Amino acid sequence: MGDRNLLGNEDSAVFSADDMVRFGAERGWKLLLALYNAAARGVTLRVLTAKESVSGGSGGRLPDELQLLVDAFPERVLVRCWSGDDWYGGGILHQKIWLFDQRDVYIGSANMDWKSLAQVMEVGVLLEGLAPSSPLLLDVQKLFDTWWAWASPELAVQTATYVSERFQSALQVPSWSLYLPKDQRTADPFVAAHLEANGNITHQMRVAFASSATPSTRTPAAPANVFFAAAPLEATAAHSRAFDEDALVYTIRSAKARVSLSVMDFAPFSIYKLASHAGPVYWSALTDALLEGVYAKKGLRVRVLVSEWQHSHPQIAPALALLQAQADLCTRMRGACSGRLEIRRFRVPGWANTTSSTAAARAAWPAYTRVNHAKFIVTDARANVGTSNMEWGYFYTTAGASVNTDHEPTRAALEALFDRNWDSIYAAPLEKR
Question: What is the pTM assigned to this prediction?
């Protein structure tokens, strides 16, 4: 799932062959070749893609990479398309989930794009060697099957409009949405297909992961709790699966000492327009959770690392400044406020010299590169690794997913990664921008 650009044809039209080698574009070719060889071995490939990537809509020509695979193996490469436009008036297929042979799972920020493999910073979770009966594997399979069913041409588009008291807006949703009154909903197609989740926030899956140590030094692994969340709410099979927004808030609230949040875009409002709704939507779920912790938890340190690149929305910077000001007010309240919030912007070298209308001269780097695209939250207690930017539409109109766990090696690795980026010369406080 996600963008399809493994061949880099458009980039090759701008840059020389030597440039493409220097950029690492061959990584896209290698992935495409691996998919081709898998199909040649008889492996069935089921691919979900964004309808926006298909020329002329669902019935049009697929991206070159997928068209090549379908033409070569029409019986083995199955493709379906999904778009939030049909169901919400906006939104795209943005999650990135891979499943291999009922054994391995990947969920993370990387698109199926050579740039994600070579010129963009990404973070994902890879689960290897799972048993076919593993509740983790079966649950991710259910999540994939939910989207496969949602993208089926047999599922007719049926929507309704409701007035959201929370968002003070009239919003379009699928006809089975839990936001609709019970007597106005249709049956949830994913419940009917028995795709309810194996775990959620209140009933997490308890798993003992194998130690990464050598067999001679391996110690028994401590059990960890895991659940997979999804967005929008209508993809959660009647909320049997955790809603992704709730998972992020739950992670933030788990903290006793530290919250570290890394994301490309962060905004307490909708950035992208909806055909079904005029004007923006205010969304305070994450800012409220962060500020609640700063105000209420003694000594809590909150760090927010937000990317800055050529395509950053102009309102992100003032929104972050406002969040910082709200946190700083705490120190002026009666009584000591020892919680604190710090915000830094992260710039990958070359970020201001990519192909776009804002480039002052011929760009040194391909379009939509040189950015930290990762989306994760790590606290002193647990971690959330997701596929969604932290903006309203990614949770209410766009397909997204996240891995949530208190697995200590995973938590510690993510915190170390965050610390590396936070302490680097590429991150600077807001006031220094």
Answer: 0.95
